[in-house]
Structure formats: C-alpha cells, structure tokens
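Forwarding the complex inputs:
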Amino acid sequence: MNIPKQNLRIPGPTPCPEEIMELMSRPMINHRGPEFKELLFSVTERLKQVFQTGNDLYILTASGTGALEASLVNTLSPGDEVIAAVTGSFGSRYADMAEAVGASVTRLDFEWGTDVDLETLRQALQVQPDVKAVLVTHNETSTGVVNDLEAIAAMVKGEFDKLLLVDAISSLGCVPLPVDRWCCDVVATASQKGFLTPPGLSFISFGPEAWKARKSATATSFYFDLEAAQSYLEKGQTPFTPNLSLFYALDRSLDVLLGEGLEETYTRHAYFADMTRRGVKALGLELLPRDHCASNTITAVRVPESIDAKALVNTLHLEHNVVVAGGLGQLEGKIIRIGHLGAVAESDIIDCLEALGKTLQAMGFRA
Amino acid sequence: MNIPKQNLRIPGPTPCPEEIMELMSRPMINHRGPEFKELLFSVTERLKQVFQTGNDLYILTASGTGALEASLVNTLSPGDEVIAAVTGSFGSRYADMAEAVGASVTRLDFEWGTDVDLETLRQALQVQPDVKAVLVTHNETSTGVVNDLEAIAAMVKGEFDKLLLVDAISSLGCVPLPVDRWCCDVVATASQKGFLTPPGLSFISFGPEAWKARKSATATSFYFDLEAAQSYLEKGQTPFTPNLSLFYALDRSLDVLLGEGLEETYTRHAYFADMTRRGVKALGLELLPRDHCASNTITAVRVPESIDAKALVNTLHLEHNVVVAGGLGQLEGKIIRIGHLGAVAESDIIDCLEALGKTLQAMGFRA
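Prediction (whole assembly, two chains):
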C-alpha cells in the first residue's frame, strides 16, 4: 500500500521527523549482545530524564495499554479496593482494566469535558480508608481535558498516602509531569505520543512504594512482569525480544527532546494548543472542555448540531488530506478532536484550521 | 548509535531485505482510519495463507511471548490440568507461563537435544484423563530441535481430543506447519523469525475448539484478550494502537513470502540447514540434536571441551563480524547456536563457517 503523507492531526500516532524515521530502517542487531546493552542503558537513562525520575523505568514492547496493564498486575491483587477517577473514555478503560485483574473498583465519574473534582476525590478517599490505589488519567485523550495531577498527587500521597497509578500516555513529554517531585508511584506512557516515534513501545516508571506493593500483589502476567524486566535490565537486556527499530528511533528522538529542553517542549505544546483553541473559536466553534482544563496536546471541539460529525471528519480527510479524530463513546458524533502533540509545525495547525473552516462553510455552517 | 551491519546468525531477529526495511520509515497514518483497515484486512488474510488456516488470526503489538500469553489466558483457568512437553529452555518457559496463570502443569522433560517422545506423551495423557491442554514447542530454539508436530497433533487431537497449544515462534513460515491439516487449535509466532521483518509484532491463530475453551476460561489479560481483538478486527481495527511501521513491512514481506511460495521457502530453509550442518561437521564439530530432529531454522553445535564458548562467541563477533548465539540454561557454555532462518544468503553461511573454522583453529582446536 502506498499511502500519501497526511496532515495527521489525531492524538497519536503523530507524524515523526524524517531524521528519526530514517533510523527505523536500520539493520537488526543481537538483542542479547553488547551493542543493544549500550543502547538500552542509554535510552533508559535519558527516558528517566524526560520522566524527571530516579525511579526504575522499563521499556516494554507493547502499546501504551500494555504499560497500563503492567501498572496494575504488578501492584494489585484480586479484591483490592481501588478508586478510579474517570473523566472520559480512557479513564473508564483504565478502571475496566483494574476490574479485569479482579480489583474492587470505585469509579468516580466526572462529566466528560470537566476535570477531576478534588473535593469529590477527597471524600471518596475518606469514605474508603482501605483503598490501596488511585488511578488517574493525566490527560484524557477522549475529551481533551488535562487533570491537575500535581494537586491530585499532593492529596493522594500527602493526605492519604495511597498508591498513585498514572496513565500519562498522551501527556508525558508534552506537558509538565515531574514524576518524583509530584510523588507519582507508577507512570505509564507510550512511544507514539510525545516522543516523536511510531507506536510499538511503552514506558513505565515504578517507584519504591510500587515495589512494596509488588511484594504482596498476586495479579499476574508473565509478559508484563516488572521483576523479570528488572532482572534482565541488570544484564542490559529485556526479557523478551524488543522492538529494535523503535529503540534506534528513540535513541535519536531523546537527543532531540532533551536537546530542545523539557521546558521548551512544554512551551511549544502550550503555544500550538493556544493557537488551535483560538483558531477553532474564531471559526465560531465551542470547545468541549472548560478553559481551565483544556489540554495542551489535544483539542476537543463541539460539532454544531446542524453538522454531521462523521461527514465532517471524512471530508477533511478525503478533500483536504487533514486527518482528525472523532468522538469516542458517549461523545461519538458530538465532537472532533485535533491533535497537536509531538512534532507539529505551525503550518500543520493553520492548514488544519483552514480546512476545517472551508469544510464547515461548504456544509452550510454559519457561525 | 551507529552499528555496522553484521552477519547476524542468531535465531532472530534476522536480517531483513532492504526493500522491506525501507518501508519501516514510512509516515504514520490513522490507525482507526480507512487506510489501516484495508492494510489490516489484507495482512491478516495473507498471514492466514502462511499459517494455512481458516481459523481466526490476530496480530498483536508484542513480542512472540505476548502471543504465547494470549494462547494461555484465552483458554485456561486456574487449576486446569495442562501437560507441557519440554525439550529445552523455551518449552520450559511456556510451562512456566502456564503456571503463572494458575494452571496445574505436568512437565514432561525430555533430554535437551532430543525431541518429544510420543510414547511418553501418550502415557501421560492416559494417566491424566482430565487434562485440558497440551503445550508443545514446535521448534525448540534453545537446542536446535524440531519436534514432530504432525505426529504429536495426530495423537493429542486424534486419540485424546485435547486442546493443542503450539509455540511456533521459530518455525512458522520456515518449516511446514499446515495449521488446519494438523488440527492445531492455537498457534503463536512472531515477526522477527520467518517473516523477514523486525521484532515487535506477534501472530496467533485461534480455532473453534479454542473459542469453546475461551467461554469458560477465567484467566484474564486485558491486553491479550482475543475477544476484544475479534470485535475490533470486525471494524478493521486493533483494540490498541498497533505498530504501524511493522504493518508496512509485513505488507511487503508477505508478498515476498507468498510470491516465493511456501514449499519453496521450506526447501530453501532445508537447504541452508543442511549446508550449515555439513559445514559444522566438516570442521570436526558435533551437533547437539540427533540427526532426525535437527532443526531447519537453527543449528546447535557442541563446543569442544578445550574451547571457551564465551570467548568463541566474542571472537566471532569482534574479529569476524559474525554474531552467533550461545547456550541457554543448562547448555550455557556448552553449545553455540547458528541461525539460518529468514532472508539468508549462501554467502552468509559460508562466511559464518569460515569464521568459525578460523577462530577455532586460532583457539587451538584440532579436529
């Protein structure tokens, strides 16, 4: 299949710089040899810099959901009480995953488009003193909402001393998430979001409190066992054959990211998010999220009632080569989502906004 | 890191043809869009041709071990009786994995270097009428032994009607494995062995008897749930973000494999295996496996007692740019393993044998 290059404005996979993509074609090496050992150590150390953590960190050959599964099976046992803060489709899925490992999950459901209400979370923690872990989605990709993880972590760790498991798939590397400063015990993310690389690897940081939980956890997975990951890492290996091509790409992308500087990367994401939000509003459209919690990696836009959302997405794709995402779950047909994370150029956003404006006009929308 | 191209003679990852590797650099697309749908359907259908199966088949973003985990969590429940035929390190690992999901595993341990003894397996099945599944490693990568899967399957299915789960990671696409003709219920393999592509994807076929077992199975994994894989496949999607780059490569590699023809591919593997075995014997070395079960994808060679196996592997690498694998587990320091699967050129084998001869001579070995 020969698919022409698109203005890919979904929330990942993101377009990746050519200098990084070229490395995907490099020849295979022995994944149990000295060259891979050096590569694994080097990439792991630099990932820790992006995570801003001294915690253990593992690279898994799996999508981000694999790292989320690792966060659960390495800390929980069937019957454990868990609170899941759900602000959208991905938060709900994280809760489903905890249920799949047998945890007794209390779901705190917040209206889709709003962020976690701290007082509601505090009350839930007060009511359930035996809760073992709290699950939080840092950036809810389905609603374009970023949760105030710093405040949530301060409460979960500072006031209640519970294990904090964070889905940071569409946030890490794009918006501030200093893992150690905020005391996040387990943080999971993936290669195809903020990391300028294709999908296929996920990353998980695992702190001392998580290791304590690991000792008594009876949920199991052979593939996502972080004790095995640790014992192989000590030898400079992964337990199972790793995705070498993505390691080559990541080796370069981490240089690019750290070369730019984390603060600069966050500023760049804030800039493109602001540009997208202003542009969308200028077209007469409304954002789904409240302003205070609008995400810097993805913008969720309400589709006017007179417009068929599916037709809008298809027309943008077929007539303008602009690929945006539709709504998930209860938001299907009600929103479109514009990704602006990873390697974004100003022209990508302008092109997307122009195409959106023209298409809406052609579909009869008047602001 | 800039690692020069090696004569990579390990049993996977294998060197991949340049025309396939080039596709790894292609731009990202929407994994929930029409282009990926077409790609997924097309690749899945052609994989079924290589598996020679009409069974359901799923592509997982994970190493081969992930597909093995899927084979177990989708068919077994804690307490289920399982027989594992163990002929080496990978057979032992498959048994470990079944134990990790809570199965009660009877291990039939065969001497490393020999294949599964059919009579021993028959007796075990007679003694344990309540066995739910039999685990078999088709090609045992750690010992260079290929098991007679056709005969094993005829017994397990024909005489005892038990579920047959097959680790075909280093065999499928290289040696005959007609999944439906041999009635193999579940067969798992990976992208970096016979498929001319890098590691990062695994493939699993799942037949009607396996689906029956799925209904009562209570072992769980969210990431490796094949019911979710099925419901997304019906939409032309995968449940989680797939490794797009490897799909691009696989799209081409399947054309190459099916263009060559399966029989021709098997013949080619037999030819290079024969060449390797003869060459090794001509150097005065002995094979680990008996002749009747020597693998066509990897040759395990006994290291003479006077020779330090680790030094031999290192010298081949550092002085001759030839990368072979050492022994695993109880065979560490006792054998080396030469891979000859995937895209092998005659010159690769000759170069490897020449380097081996020279290195052994320099180390003082006289046949």
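The longest helix of chain B spans residues 262-282.
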